[in-house]
Specification:
globular; 4-stranded mixed β-sheet; mainly beta
Length: 603
């Protein structure tokens, strides 16, 4: 049997800002914002100390994906073999603003004078169309070795090609990254890394039936696999920010606004050093990879219920870690290097109870104890160079580490079979659904923004831990009734070129607990149509769940007034919905009690 599948998708990210006449407002004419020198995609920011107005486009990017898979399945005796190919092309159309203008005034009085306190005109390099191709070939065999033992094994080969650009406008690569003081530009068109053709990923699994006694069936499962990750998340920025990506003319205080043609003339993009910003990869950059393994014991408890216990482990190696260097040599101002310098480890015990729908009751409950450790929890954060601060000093609990997590969901549909007439209509056809959530606190990293590391910039670093000082203080006036103790942390002297003694993610925020409940009733309208009434109560006990406390001690010795305090509820910290991302806080875990009523026709 053969199976062929195809997919095409198109996602656009666009933002346009405009001023309207709502409430009797009088929009400012475009001629005030845009001098004759402004052409193409453009944006202007007009701001005072109390308000900011934007006019024009801000983003207009398109991402397209084409995917084609083909598989062939063959049954040969006790073997079920499968072979396949998977091809995916992703194309990103970067459409940066051609020109971006800015005018800043000291309050409304400054705006009335028409003299700016600061301003700039920025020109950006033209659009780019970047494509990536990913190829995969795989072969797999499922062998029924005996009535109790089933083995599955196979291998996958992956080739992730170096990105291409439609007009050949590739980012600038560097030669000699081993010594940044002497690193120089590579010849035009030199790739940032070389695609490997040796990415083989073996997978294997086994299932053995320990007992087949009815109602006490017991199965032992296990598996191991090697998985490669894509490198594009932290490296495609080299294409959108390739040198020269932008040029800026800074306008002095006192420049009249609206800008004259001379003031608003965009800068000419030039390849004359220094390069303002470069994103490169290490010379021996390779695909990140993860080893995963698991063992699960599952047992039936009767004919409708099962319980399972599983151990799950993963080890991430050659993961991407971004390093940032300021003024490494006279040719470069800011240099970001993606290196295979991070690693991670995850271990978890997972328990699960499942009850299939029986006698009106369905249940799914799970608990996990886990620990995730790494040296970098994402590939977007910039760290100090490994030559200054060893990545090993950042090895600690992951940003998203949750040690204990419990969740349960059930549905109950009571049925009184002896009821009839009006009594049956009152007590039957109701249903109760509930979700219970509880988890332990997530980590908080205590940091200071001061040039402790001697990098020439206010880089984020960690403080020293004061021996004997309590880390937490009870305080009934703040959210959660607890705050971090500022006196427990000491900021090292500037330019000390060392990381503080406090470990990364050493503190913890607040645990989370919430119960959601839904009550529904169905009314039969016709043979094919049903009217459903549903009332949903989120966080029915109105239990307060707070976001993590602020972990920033301050900047340049200026204390942060909200350090160690939870300033928002958990639901708000997870996103505000719309363009801000996430769901509406009312429907996030950790929000206040809320009620939603609905009517639905099912047909």
């Amino acid at each position: 049997m053969t199976e062929l599948r195809g997919n095409w998708s198109d996602v656009r990210g666009q933002e346009i800002n405009d001023l309207d006449s709502f409430g009797g407002a009088v929009p400012i004419p475009d001629s005030v914002y845009y001098p004759s020198t402004f052409t193409g995609e453009r944006n202007f920011t007009f701001s005072t100390t109390s308000a900011t107005y934007q006019k024009g486009g801000f983003a207009n990017n398109v991402q397209k994906q084409h995917n084609l898979t083909d598989s062939l399945s063959v049954v040969f005796g006790s073997h079920q073999m499968k072979f396949g190919v998977d091809w995916r092309r992703s194309t990103i159309n970067y459409r940066p603003l051609a020109i971006n203008g800015q005018a800043v005034f000291q309050g409304a009085t400054g705006a009335i004078t028409g003299l700016i306190s600061q301003g700039s005109i920025t020109a950006t390099a033209g659009p780019k169309d970047v494509s990536t191709d990913n190829w995969s070939l795989y072969a797999q065999d499922t062998w029924k070795a005996s009535s109790k033992l089933t083995l599955t094994y196979g291998v996958r080969w992956e080739m992730n090609a170096y990105p291409s650009e439609k007009l050949g406008r590739y980012p600038t690569a560097l030669i000699g990254l081993s010594d940044l003081a002497t690193a120089t530009f590579a010849p035009a068109g030199t790739p940032l890394w070389s695609a490997s053709h040796k990415n083989f990923a073996p997978r294997m699994g086994a299932a053995y039936q320990l007992s087949n006694r009815r109602g006490r069936e017991t199965i032992l499962r296990g598996g191991f696999g090697l998985f490669y990750d894509l490198p594009y998340g932290s490296t495609l920025g080299a294409f959108s920010n390739s040198w020269p990506s932008a040029g800026r003319n800074r306008l002095p205080a006192g420049t009249p606004f609206p800008y004259s043609t001379a003031s608003a003339t965009p800068p000419v993009l030039s390849l004359t050093p220094p390069a303002t910003s470069l994103i490169v990869t290490d010379s021996d950059f390779r695909l990140p990879l993860t080893y995963q393994w698991n063992v699960t014991l599952e047992r039936s408890l009767g004919t409708m219920q099962t319980i399972s216990a599983a151990y799950i482990g993963a080890a991430g190696r050659r993961l991407i870690r971004q390093e940032q260097v300021i003024n490494p040599n006279p040719l470069i101002v800011t240099l970001n290097i993606a290196r295979n310098a991070a690693e991670s480890d995850y271990n978890a015990l997972q328990l699960q109870f499942t009850r299939r729908l029986s006698r009106g009751l369905q249940v799914l409950a799970s608990y996990s104890w886990s620990h995730s450790l790494d040296t970098a929890s994402n590939d977007a954060t910039s760290f100090a160079p490994g030559s200054v601060i060893s990545p090993a000093l950042d090895h600690s609990s992951s940003d998203f580490d949750i040690r204990h997590s419990a969740r349960a969901a059930f549905t109950y549909t009571p049925t009184v079979k002896s009821a009839s007439g009006i009594f049956s209509a009152l007590v039957n056809h109701w249903a109760l659904d509930s979700i219970l959530t509880a988890r332990s606190a997530t980590p908080v990293n205590i940091t200071t923004t001061t040039d402790v590391l001697g990098l020439g910039i206010n880089a984020v670093s960690r403080p020293d831990l004061v021996a004997g000082a309590p880390l937490y203080i009870s305080d009934s006036t703040v959210g959660g009734g607890q705050r971090f103790n500022r006196a427990a942390f000491f900021i090292p002297a500037a330019n000390s070129k060392r990381q503080g003694t406090l470990g990364r993610n050493a503190m913890r925020g607040f645990s989370v607990g919430q119960i959601d409940l839904a009550i529904r009733r169905e009314f039969r309208m016709t043979e094919r149509a049903t009217l459903q009434f549903r009332g949903e109560l989120f966080n029915i006990l109105n239990h307060p769940n707070f976001a993590d406390p602020d972990g920033s001690l301050g900047t340049n010795g200026v204390p942060n007034a909200t350090f160690g305090i939870a300033t928002t509820m958990l639901g708000q910290s997870l996103g505000l919905g719309g363009v801000s991302g996430g769901l509406n806080p009312l429907y996030q875990v950790g929000g206040p009690r809320s009620v939603q009523l609905s009517l639905k026709v099912i047909f």
